[in-house]
Amino acid sequence: MYSVSDCKIVDLSKVHSDAGNITVLENNKNVPFDIKRIYYLYDVPMGSERGGHGHYELEQFIVAASGSFTFVLDDGENQKEVFLNDPSKALYIKPGIWREIKNFSSGSICMVLASQIYSEKDYLRDYKEFLNFKKL
Length: 136
Ligand code: TYD
What we know:
With 136 residues, the chain is mostly beta strands.
């Protein structure tokens, strides 16, 4: 079982020029899994919170493509807050971690690279069920 300390910020590096930056994400290179799905959260109203679930198997790479927001990670025993505001960094979320997302800045874009296609069966949406899965 993974803990919040296994969820790390990964430096994606960037190709910099006077005309701007490029950051590249590649399967099994700087992304440590096969990317099966990409989605992004945007137009999140001020004050809204998202997430509030865990996943049985899904691995995710989270990038603040624009703006900023905060992920609150929870393994059932410990919590960790991660502030994301840099498109050249990703937060790697391992399976079996509860997350909430808050403090979206206006116009922010939360891009998510995922190791599996969407499946509602992979969600743990009930916190008690999550703790039970974590054997806590
Ligand atoms: P959810 O992952 O619960 O959103 P968040 O964690 O950002 O609050 O997804 C919300 C809804 O969006 C979900 O009930 C179904 C739909 N959805 C898809 O159809 N496909 C997807 O890949 C995702 C991420 C969500």
